[in-house]
Amino acid sequence: MKKFVNDPKQFVPEMLKGIALANPETIKYVPEYNLIMRADAPNNDKVSLVQGSGSGHEPAHVMVVGPGMLDAACPGDVFSAPPADYVYETAKLVASDKGVLLLVNNYTGDRMAFEMAQEMAEADDVLVDTLFIDDDVAVQDSTWTVGRRGVAGNFFVMKACGALAEEGASLPEVKAIGEKVNSVTRTMGVALTACTPPAKGAPLFDLGEDEMEIGVGIHGEPGRRRAKLVSADEIVDEMLGAIVPDLPFASGDRVALMVNGLGGTPISELYLVYGIAAEKLQAQGIEIARSYVGEYCTSLEMAGASITLVKLDDEIERLLLAPAEVVNRIF
Amino acid sequence: MKKFVNDPKQFVPEMLKGIALANPETIKYVPEYNLIMRADAPNNDKVSLVQGSGSGHEPAHVMVVGPGMLDAACPGDVFSAPPADYVYETAKLVASDKGVLLLVNNYTGDRMAFEMAQEMAEADDVLVDTLFIDDDVAVQDSTWTVGRRGVAGNFFVMKACGALAEEGASLPEVKAIGEKVNSVTRTMGVALTACTPPAKGAPLFDLGEDEMEIGVGIHGEPGRRRAKLVSADEIVDEMLGAIVPDLPFASGDRVALMVNGLGGTPISELYLVYGIAAEKLQAQGIEIARSYVGEYCTSLEMAGASITLVKLDDEIERLLLAPAEVVNRIF
Question: DhaK domain: which residues (chains A, B) (predicted)?
Answer without folding.
Answer: 7-330
